[in-house]
Specification:
Elements lengths: L6 E6 L13 E5 L5 E7 L3 E6 L8 E7 L5 E8 L2 E3 L6 E3 L1 E7 L2 E6 L5 E5 L2 E4 L11 E6 L11 E2 L2 H8 L4 E4 L5 E9 L3 E3 L9 E3 L2 E7 L2 E6 L4 E6 L5 E6 L3 E2 L10 E2 L6 E4 L2 E4 L3 E6 L5 E5 L5 E6 L18 E5 L10 E6 L7 E7 L2 E6 L6 E5 L4 E5 L1
Parallel strand pairs: 1-26, 6-14
Antiparallel strand pairs: 1-25, 1-27, 2-35, 3-4, 4-5, 5-6, 7-8, 9-10, 10-13, 11-12, 13-16, 15-16, 17-18, 19-20, 20-21, 21-22, 23-24, 25-26, 27-28, 29-30, 30-31, 31-32, 33-34, 34-35
């Protein structure tokens, strides 16, 4: 569906409906990734992967992956990361979003260990201090020409992170003597007060988790605060562009309370439209920030892309138009530990076709419009799945 206004498409996580399945061939293209969160297409049949890192602080990274061979090498290492327990279990949280425009890369960083879980639904600033001064930030990195052919990557040191936090640009030099220039676009708050009757000092952690661009602004999804920030690229000034209120819980009172949070996970632009992550796909007007449902009845939706008029579809899906969408769900039933799913919609109101039902914690995907192949990152096993 071509929207007659400039808008966002936004995916939010909720529930599931079972439909006919159209199984596709899948294979593991790349393994050994460090908790991959986001994936974008890059030049010369390559892709860039945003990874949260390991259980060691400040090991977030951007990997360069050959889409033909699956070969991985580090493009940028040493990005902000920390071990978080906000989800209940200890896990690294670092680089959560990337946006590539030419040779300019925008890197979004999560909350890391800036906040900790101190009880059911309760959060606190980390009394030990955060591992990085630039969690919940956006870094602009200008890469050198022919960056996909570099034999060695760049490393951001903690001293570099401190310099960025102070507003100074940083020049990174790799082993070949090539340079990349990094600057901090914005360093957003790690948390905001959210007092409770029994916990007056309670806070709510921010968690940036995706980024898109329109004109001179970045639109950054915040999964912690359930909103989209609008950040000016030149000045770093921030405003709240759109908010997503709590939604009725369709499983109440069997499971959970009467309402659940939207938890946006991704945002993309296709032409004059952006796409992003909520238990449904939502269209968000770029002029007003108002939003409305586009594709309902998804479960833990984490990413969405519009097929586009120039796309060559997977196998029997012949030429598609701007009405067609692919959706990615982290799990079809998170409480039961169910696997994730890739779906195809010929238009937002059509009955979806399940392409793959066996994905293990998928987080992001891209499509090669020339071959119709889809590539999916999986955070748990640290892999990229190729769908063809």
């Amino acid at each position: 569906m071509f929207l007659k206004r400039i808008s966002f498409l936004f995916a939010i996580s909720l529930l599931v409906f079972v439909v006919d399945s159209q199984s596709q061939t899948t294979s593991v293209l790349t393994a050994g990734l460090d908790h991959p969160n986001k994936l974008v297409n890059a030049a010369n049949n390559s892709m860039l992967v945003a990874e949260s890192g390991t259980m060691t602080a400040n090991t977030g990274r951007i990997s360069l992956v050959d889409a033909l061979t699956g070969h991985r090498r580090t493009l940028i290492g040493g990005l902000p990361s920390g071990v978080s327990n906000l989800g209940g279990d200890l896990a690294p949280d670092g680089t959560t979003g990337i946006l590539l425009r030419g040779n300019v890369l925008y890197v979004v960083n999560g909350v890391g260990d800036a906040c900790i879980n101190v009880g059911p639904g309760l959060e606190s600033p980390n009394p030990a201090g955060a591992s990085s001064p630039i969690f919940d930030s956006i870094i602009e990195i200008t890469l050198p020409g022919a960056y996909t052919k570099l034999r060695s990557g760049f490393l951001l040191s903690l001293a570099d992170q401190n310099a960025l936090a102070s507003g100074d640009p940083v020049v990174l030099t790799n082993a070949e003597g090539r340079s990349a220039v990094a600057r901090l676009v914005a360093n957003l708050p790690d948390y905001r007060p959210e007092p409770r009757p029994t916990a007056p000092n309670n806070v709510r952690a921010s968690h940036l988790f995706g980024v898109e661009m329109f004109q001179g602004d970045l639109y950054v999804v915040d999964a912690g605060w359930n909103l989209i920030h609008k950040v000016n690229i030149s000045t770093g000034s921030e405003s709240i562009f759109a908010t997503f209120p709590n939604r009725p819980n369709p499983r109440f009172p069997t499971i959970g309370g009467p309402f659940i949070e939207s938890v946006p996970d991704a945002v993309h632009r296709v032409g004059n439209t952006l796409v992003a992550g909520v238990s449904e796909i939502r269209s968000i007007d770029l002029k007003t920030g108002t939003n409305e449902g586009l594709i309902p009845n998804l479960t833990s939706a984490i990413d969405v892309i519009q097929a586009g008029t120039s796309s060559v579809s997977l196998k029997e899906f012949a030429a598609v138009d701007e009405s067609a969408y692919y959706t990615l769900e982290f799990s079809t039933n998170m409480l039961a530990g169910a696997l994730g799913r890739l779906r195809y919609y010929s238009d937002p109101t059509s009955t979806p076709i399940d392409l793959v039902n066996t994905l293990v914690t998928p987080t992001s995907f891209v499509r090669n419009d020339e071959t119709g192949e889809i590539f999916i990152t999986n955070i748990g096993p640290g892999t990229i799945t190729k769908v063809h």
